[in-house]
Every structure is written in structure tokens, then in C-alpha cells.
Amino acid sequence: MKLLRNTVIRAGLEALYFSGAHYLLRPIFAGVGAIFMLHHVRPSREGEFQPNYHLEVEPEFLRAMLAHLRSLDVDIVTMDEVHQRLSERNFERRFACFTLDDGYRDNRDFALPVMREFDAPLTVYVASDFAEGTGKLWWVALETVIAKASSIEVPIGGIATHLDTSTPAAKQAAFDRLHDWLRALPSEHDLQREVSALCTQHDVDQTSTARDLCMSWDELKAFAADPLVTIGAHTITHCNLAKQPEATAAFELATSRARIEDALQRPVLHLAYPYGDRIAAGQREFKLAKMAGFKTAVTTRPGMVFPESADHMTALQRVSLNGNYQDARILPVLTSGAATAVWNGFRRIDAA
Ligand SMILES: [Zn+2]
């Protein structure tokens, strides 16, 4: 199913490219700038079963995007600068901003060196429990369980369900089904309970996921000292804020900010909502982010930045750089706003 969806999206991007539609859409949907969203930046790995591959791009693709933006004479700016230009309605020059979620160590090892080649700043959003080494990256644990197991049993809808995980294709199908099931569970607690049960059954240690992949406080301190780097917040536990009671969501926002500021001794003024889609961040979260003192907050809803984004500083849309579409031909499709316009139903602002 996911393969089909990816193929449809790819056909859409290629159709936009070959039809030249991105040129026609540019004046309406390119906006005044773009905030790009990335997760991992690292060389591709061997192996057929890589269900989280959409969350990573190769350094070469990041380099191609930066070169493309430079060729268009687009300014590459910090989130502070995005906030300032929006506040001052300063749209003389087009701008782009690079943001990376979760605080992966590869951001330091592979993204920063490429950004440095272009003297381009980046913002990395840190979940404080990941930096602490205590957080759990359940989507990584799920991948590890399925990679290892040849079959899995889970209580979907209260019914013990047997899933074949003996071949790469079966593993991918099982991952997609479990991923959707887990994200639809009523609470964060339910999700963690089910993933923990799977890890126990299949002897997978999910407590090491954060330490294996994310920068520690010490590493972040050195990373944050680089003049190109801004550190933002991504909550404490990387929870779905919209599924939390209001007091918990407010605590996640304010306390993650305080913990990062305390550990790094720098102001933290920018936020990314974990998951960041419609079911993870809405009106209530946009208001809570403002109340917690964030100047900006970014979602994962697709879209460019428009002058009217200034009225929605804590509901800014982004353009995903997705591992499944690392083709240089789609760069102009992404920067024209054509792709995000198609994905979000030709809306400029999506902040409701
Ligand atoms: Zn995240």
C-alpha cells in the first residue's frame, strides 16, 4: 500500500516536472520562502527492509538542494531570520530555512559539513529525553523487531492478529500495518505499552535507541557552539501533543524548553511539533506553543511560507525532503511550491 502511495506521489512529482506545471504554479504557490524539513542525513545503507527510509536523505541530495537554491539566488536563513522577515513583512528576497527534527548524531556528522560548504545555517529540534538518553524511538524499535522476527502477534482491535514477517515484502507490509495501528491508538501510553510488549517478546532493547542515534547533552553542547547551528525544542518525550491532556501538553512544551536552555545555556525560541500532522498539532497546540514563549513553531503540514504566514507563527508549514524522492529533477518542483500545493489541496495557509 505504501509502495503504491509512493509510486503515485513519485508519478505526481514527475508529472509536475515533465508538464512544466511547476512553472505555471510558481507565481501563485512559491510564496516568499520555504522551510525544509529533514530528519536523518547519512549515506544510504544496505538492506531491502528499510521502512523508515523516508526519514533520511543522503548528503549528496542535501548538497544538490543547497546548490539549486544558491543558483536561484535564494537566501538561506535561520529560524530567527524567518521570524524577523515575516514580522517586518520583508519579502524583498526569497528565503529558505533548513530544519532537522529529533537531534540525530548524523546531523552533526553529515548535514553540518554540507551546510558549511554553503555557509548555510540549520535548526535542529531536540526532544530532551532523547538527549538525556532515556527517550524511546518506537518507530526504530518496531523496525528492529520486524527485521529480526519471522512472524509477529499483536492485539489489533483486541483480537490477537498474526502477521507474517518472513520476507522483506511481508516485513514492509507488517510495518505499515503496525505503524498505522500504533499511531491510531487512543493514548501515548497505549502506544508505548504495545511497542514495549513487542520488544520484550522479541528480545529487543529499545532503551538504547536514543543513545544509539541521538546526540547527548555533551555532544549537543559542542554542536550548538557552531555559529551555523540553532537548537530548537521538540518536546520532552516526543509525544503526540494533541492526544495529551492540556496540562501535560503545556508541561511538555515549557519544560522541554527549560531543560534544553539549562543544559546548553542558550535561549530556545523555536519549536517543532512531534509528528506535526493534523492529528498531532492543531489550534490548541498552536496556542500552547505561543504561551510557552516560542517565537515560531513548525508543523509537518506541507506548504511554503506566504506573507500571511506572519499571522500563524506557531503553525508554520514545511516542505519535506523525503528519502523516497531523492531525484535532482524534483528540486524545482519542490521550490516552486507546486508539490506542496498539490499535497495540501491548493491551500496557501493550512493552520486550522
Ligand atoms: Zn520527531
Cα(first) to Cα(last) distance is 29 Å
* Proportion of residues in extended strands: 15-25%
**SSE run:** HHEEEHEHEHEHHEEHHHHEHEHEEHH
Mean pLDDT across all residues, rounded?
93
Bound molecules: zinc ion
Helix content bin: 40-55%
Overall shape: it is globular
For the sheet with most strands, the description reads: 8 strands, parallel
Strand segment count: 12
Radius of gyration: 20 Å
Structural class: alpha/beta
Count the DSSP helices. Answer: 15
Residue windows where pLDDT falls under 50 for at least 5 positions? none
Compact summary:
The chain is α/β, with parallel strands linked by helices and 352 residues long. The chain contains 15 helices and twelve strands. It is globular and about 60 Å long.
